[in-house]
Specification:
Length: 459
């Protein structure tokens, strides 16, 4: 078992039985569920909308090379600059190069899972550059020195009381402040950061090929401020964020909003086409870093490549019984829940992260809720098969499966020992894996086959 798997198992056992954690998570996901089901009411035919969105994303992924070139040409024509990054090291190296060239010392960031993936905040801090998260949830987890807990709601694991205590510890604010009062004080504090920032970093919800634009959606306005106030705007986006046409936003944005937060449409939806032009306000320079970081490894897979269609709405996390029990930090990966369990083994290495594909009930709830119809539970099964095919199994696992196969294929071998002996072997090999929180099922003394023969001797 890999070190990552051992840490996952240990953390899972702790979180699954942490009643306070479960209470907070159930409360916050419960609020999401109410909004989500209400938001779905805007669709006369939800399945048709999902199918159209799936077709758009499949088209973009299947012809990704073509659309990336089209996007680059149009983005440059709009006055922007494109940087290709093979991995996180490349991306951070380019960001540091630009910041050194432009004497950048203060950075404001809007919410972006791609920048979490490359750990840009840690890199900037190490190089003496202040980087402040301006999304409220991201701001909270940055203050707490934590990673985002959820793809859409980074501080989902924290209660109002815990947030109040954090603000009291960091800023000496009154613990009894209401959520609205805390939000207002954070807004004032961040406004100063926007004014003084030398550069802004954002992610991208969509890369739009035919116009060479970036689609950015948010609820707080911090994304717009992060790119409007500083002189330099850097967009970090995974290459899979591509859609063919700006007209596709009419389908994609409402689906992302409804499945992400339950809204008909998020509050701020921006289309960015480069730096400011004459008589305009905004950044003087706009760069987009197109990040691979082993996404092409996912693209190579005949079946799992469809996972690159993901629009990062987080809906699969909210319905996953495993995620709702063990929480986001347990995964120790940027992308968590069902979608993370599909793509993380390819992004981080199947040998070390194959365990994530096994951390699933395969109930199919994630597949049912996905707005772009990714068959997530089927992808998890494909990952399991690939892990075995790549021989990422232990000697004991291989021996156990071969023995089981041999016995199951021969009735005589299956019936050679009674239930008592079978129970002995079951407790010997499976009790530890079964855990100490539930009783290992007992095998009957006589098999169904034996009982049938005894009761029907003439047949």
């Amino acid at each position: 078992m890999s070190e990552a798997a051992q840490k996952f198992n240990k953390a899972s056992k702790l979180k699954a039985f942490d009643k306070d954690h479960r209470k907070t998570l159930n409360f916050n996901i419960g609020k999401y569920d109410q909004s989500f089901h209400k938001g779905l009411e805007q669709y006369a035919d939800l399945d048709l909308a999902r199918q159209r969105a799936a077709n758009i994303k499949r088209k973009a992924i299947n012809d990704l090379d073509k659309y990336l070139i089209e996007f680059e040409q149009n983005f440059i024509q709009n006055g922007g600059k494109v940087i290709w990054a093979c991995d996180a090291e490349d991306a951070n190296k380019e960001i540091l190069r630009m910041f050194k060239e432009k004497a950048v010392k203060k950075v404001v960031k809007s919410k972006s899972m791609t920048t979490e993936e490359i750990e840009v905040n840690a890199v900037l801090e190490k190089n003496g550059i202040e980087s402040v998260e301006t999304d409220l949830g991201e701001f909270i987890v940055q203050l707490a020195d934590e990673k985002p807990y959820h793809i859409v709601t980074p501080a989902m694991h924290k209660s109002k009381k815990e947030v109040g205590e954090l603000f009291n510890q960091k800023f000496d604010w009154d613990k009894s402040l209401t959520a609205e009062e805390m939000t207002a004080k954070v807004r004032l504090k961040l406004r100063e950061k926007f004014y003084s920032a030398d550069a802004g970093i954002t992610g991208a919800n969509f890369l739009i090929a035919d116009t060479g634009s970036i689609g950015l959606t948010e609820n707080e306005g911090n994304g717009i401020l992060s790119m409007a106030f500083p002189k330099v705007h850097i967009i970090v986006a995974g290459i899979e964020k591509m859609i063919p046409s700006i007209n596709d936003l009419a389908i994609m944005w409402p689906l992302l909003s409804t499945h992400g937060t339950g809204q008909h449409l998020t509050v701020y939806n921006s289309v960015i086409t480069g730096g400011k032009r004459e008589n305009e306000e905004g950044p003087e320079e706009t760069y987009v870093i197109l990040l691979n970081n082993k996404r092409t490894e996912v693209l190579k897979q005949e079946d799992q490549s469809v996972a690159l269609s993901c629009i990062r709405c987080g809906a699969c996390l909210n319905v996953c019984p495993v995620y709702k029990n063990i929480g986001g930090h347990t995964y120790k990966t940027t992308y968590t829940g069902p979608i993370g369990s599909v793509i993380s083994p390819w992004l981080l290495g199947m040998k070390d992260y194959k365990h994530l594909s096994f951390a699933s009930s395969l109930c199919g709830a994630c597949t049912e809720v996905c707005p772009v119809k990714i068959p997530l539970h089927e992808m998890l099964l494909k990952n399991r098969k690939d892990a075995v095919d790549q021989k990422h199994t232990t000697f004991s696992e291989r021996t156990m499966v071969k023995t089981w196969e041999k016995v199951m294929l021969k009735r005589k071998l299956l019936d050679i020992v009674g239930g008592g002996m079978k129970n002995f072997f079951a407790s010997l090999f499976f009790k530890k894996a079964w855990g100490n929180k539930r009783n290992l099922p007992k095998i009957a003394d006589k098999s169904f086959n034996k009982r049938w023969i005894e009761q029907h001797p003439d047949k």
